[in-house]
Every structure is written in structure tokens, then in C-alpha cells.
Amino acid sequence: MDIKRQLEGELSNQAQREKCPDRIYFKVRNSYIESVMKKGENIKMKKTNKFVLNGIALAVAIMIPVGALAAPYVIKAFNTIKIEENGVNMTLSEYLPEKTNLTDIQQAGLETAYKAYPELEKFEISTINSGEGNVDSEIMDWCSITLKDGNRKFTLDIDNVTGDFHYLARTNWGVDYSSLSEDELVGESLAMIESVYGKLDGYDYEFKSAYEDLNTEKAELVKDNDDYKNRKYLEISNEDEDRYFKVDYSEKGQLAVVVLNK
Amino acid sequence: MLDKSKEKDLELYKSIENLKEGSMEAFDFIYESTSSDIYRLISMIIYNEMDREDIMNEVYIQIWSSIEKYDTDKPFRAWIHGITMNQISSFKRKNWRIFRIFEKECSTLAKSEVIYEEDMTRFDEKNEILKMLDKLSYKLKSVIILRYYSNHSLKEIADILKIPLGTVKSRHNLAIKQLEVRMRQKNKNEGGFKDNSWILKDN
């Protein structure tokens, strides 16, 4: 056979065997979103999710913070996946990062954050993730919103039904928390919590061991991790109040407040 | 082929214009219309899957960042193939520099090309013509792939690779000649490539 015809035939056959992996779509899409957002253009992104990809599920799951998450019921998700493993049974959703993709309850939560920290109004929404389901025995119906301004970041997790905050974290706000004394840490933590909840009357604080709080199974997993065994957190509570706070300052440049109920 | 007609080209062009406004529908349309074709073109030259993904990403970034340079009188597919080939060349140059840094003992261009080509050999053992093609130098191979896989004319290939038409013609003729010689040689050698070092020397 003529060599040119052979080439045409065999190259075409070879090409048919090469399938473009689905994961590339998300990689390219993310680059696109980043580039558009970097341009700072006043854009209106809309998405029809034509690519429902099982293979992507794990990668997306890793990207979504554990403490995140809950789905607005009306607004269409950018991407939705299900995770069923290790005590987790959740539907995780990713939304395009703009205000119109927030429910009224989530918008109200964001407004509360703006009121507490007016400078946040200049920040851009960088991610909106949500999750509905169970983690261990806890029912989750949360939304996690992250705001960014250059290196500075603010994350808030909101209960989708009640609008309560579950988690607040600020990162790279010019304070090295690891270098602060315990008194200074308490001061920073109280200031952050009170900016959202108002004056905390009658609350006490205590530095506790994160390792000692673990159950036997989890403690066994990290028993050789000296870093974890020495890790502490700050608990701020009032025996007469249902709401209390755990402050995590173990991540570099980050002060994170977990809001809990007894 | 994906977008031979002018209407399709214009539809893609319009979508790319919308890309600049942040339209995810436009992005999906462009990606769905072109990704398979671009990926296959890359896979003809680049073996490693992760490298292919990186190149794909760079190609699309280039598409939406340089749409102003697209001449609507020319085929859209040829334009994106030009971007793709340019990204593949950039990748190969980068790879070669990395290779030179870490493999100083293989400091001659000829030696590094030999190793690069061996890395790229991956076609089906039974497919002799593609194995032969894989052994050609990158310059010759890219012309053959654009001509016989992507079905571009020699003039289009000249535009895509940004080289004179005469150079495309001479590379094309040389590539075909080398393939014919190798096929004849192979047919004489019973048992295939017991020693293929001769193939690597005459590129």
C-alpha cells in the first residue's frame, strides 16, 4: 500500500484510540475562571454543567474544605458530586463565586461578616462550596464562603437553614499568631468573636490539648505525631450559655474560630 | 473533522468573543468543539499524559488570550493547531533544557535527541508505519502529522508552523523518503528491529 495512505489510515486509527481525559476539562476551566477574574472584568459567569464526571469526584472532594458546606436549593450548582466513605455521606456542590449564587440566608450571613469587618466588602468572593448530608453522626447543611484580597483570606461557614455561623477564619491578616503570648491570643480571639457576636459577658477561657480531646481510635492514628500531640487550642465558654467557641491557631498565619453548641 | 465549515468557524469565533466576557456557555462550547481534536494532535507527539494535560491547559489559555490575533479569513482549526504546535515546541524546548541540566554527560544535541525519541516510542508493536514515524525527528514528524492526521494542506502547515512553504515541502519529501527507506530496510530484516541504532543516527 502507498505509504501516504498507510499514514492517513493508521494515524486516524491511532487518534481514535486517544480519548481526552475528562479531568482536563476542570483544569482548563479553572484556568479560564482564574484568568477572567484576574482581569477584574465585571463579568457574569453562567454555567451549564455538561460534564458529569465520576473520575473527578475525588479530586474535587479534596479541594473542598472539611468544615465546609450546604446547597442552596434554587441556584444551580457549578459542579455536584456525592461522597460516601469513612463516615461521610454528603452531596458536595461547587458554585461560581459571585453574590448572586448565594441564598438570602447566606447573603445575610455575608452581610453580618461585612458589618463585623467592613474591609471585607473590598474582598472578592473566591469560592462558594456547600455540602448536605452526614459527617459521622452529625447532620450537615452548610455553606462555606471564602473571600480573598490578594494574600488575605476570610472564610465563613454558615448553616443553610438557620443562618448561624459554624466557622470563621482569617488568614494572612498581618499577625503571626504563633509568636503571640497566651494573653495576646485570647485578646485577638475575643476581638474576632465579639466583632460578630457582640460583647461576651461571663465567658472564661482555657488552653486545652487537642490530642487529649481525641477519641481512642483517632488518638491511635496520631500517637507518633509529636506536632499533633503538642497542639493546643483555646476554648472560650460560659457555663450558663449554650454557645461556646474553640479557637484554632495551629495553621500558620491563621486564626480560626469554630462555633459550637453544648 | 470538527469545524470545516465557515459557519462553524464563525460560531466558534463568536463564542471566543463571549469568552472574554466570562461566559461559561461559550467556554463549554469551545471546549466541547475542540478538545478532542487538540488532545489527539498533542498525543501524536507527546507521550506523557500529565504533559499532555499541561499543554492542553496552555493551549486554551493561549486561545482566549490571543483571540484578537485570529484572522477570520483563515480556518479556525488551522489557527488553534498553530497554537497547539507552538505550545508543543515550547514544551519540548523546556524539556530539553531540563534534560541538559540533569544529564550533563549527554551534552550533545544529537545524544539528547536519541533519548527523547526513545522515550516517545509507544505505538502498537504491530504498527510498523507508526513506529517508523515515531523515530523521525520532531521537525519531520510534525509535518507528517499535520498533513496526514490533521489533513492540512502544505500551505496551511507553513502558516501553522510559521515556516516557508518551501521548507514544509522539503521536510515533507524528506520524511516520506526516510519512511520509505526504513520500511524497505525493515522488510529485509527478518525478525524486525534486532538492532535499531542505525535508525537513530540518520535523522
Task: Explain the layout of strands and helices.
The complex is a heterodimer of chains A (262) and B (203).
Chain A: H1 3-17, H2 23-39, H3 57-63, E1 79-85, E2 88-95, H4 104-116, E3 124-135, E4 138-149, E5 152-159, E6 165-171, H5 182-197, E7 204-209, H6 216-221, H7 226-229, E8 232-237, E9 243-248, E10 254-261
Antiparallel strand pairs in A: 1-2, 2-3, 3-4, 4-5, 5-6, 6-10, 7-8, 8-9, 9-10
Chain B: H1 6-19, H2 24-43, H3 49-65, H4 76-102, H5 109-120, H6 128-135, H7 138-148, H8 154-161, H9 165-188, H10 197-201
In short:
Chain A is α+β, with helices and mostly antiparallel strands and 262 residues long. Chain A folds into two domains: 45-173, no CATH class; 175-262, no CATH class.
Write a concise keyword list for the protein shown above.
heterodimer, A: 262 residues, alpha+beta, 2 domains, 10-stranded antiparallel beta sheet, 30% helix, B: 203 residues, mainly alpha, Rna Polymerase Sigma Factor, Chain: A, Arc Repressor Mutant, subunit A, 10 helices
Tell me what you see in this structure:
The complex is a heterodimer of chains A (262) and B (203). By secondary structure, chain A is an alpha+beta fold. In chain A, 30% of the residues lie in helices and 31% in strands. Chain A is elongated. Chain B has two domains: 1-102, RNA polymerase sigma factor, region 2, helix turn helix motif (Rna Polymerase Sigma Factor, Chain: A), CATH 1.10.1740.10; 107-203, Winged helix-like DNA-binding domain superfamily/Winged helix DNA-binding domain (Arc Repressor Mutant, subunit A), CATH 1.10.10.10. Chain B is built from ten helices and no strands. Chain B has helices spanning 6-19, 24-43, 49-65, 76-102, 109-120, 128-135, 138-148, 154-161, 165-188, 197-201. In chain B, helix 2 (24-43) crosses helix 4 (76-102) and helix 8 packs across helix 9. The longest helix of chain B has 27 residues, at 76-102. At the A-B interface, helix 1 and helix 2 of A face helix 2, helix 3, helix 6, helix 7 and helix 9 of B.
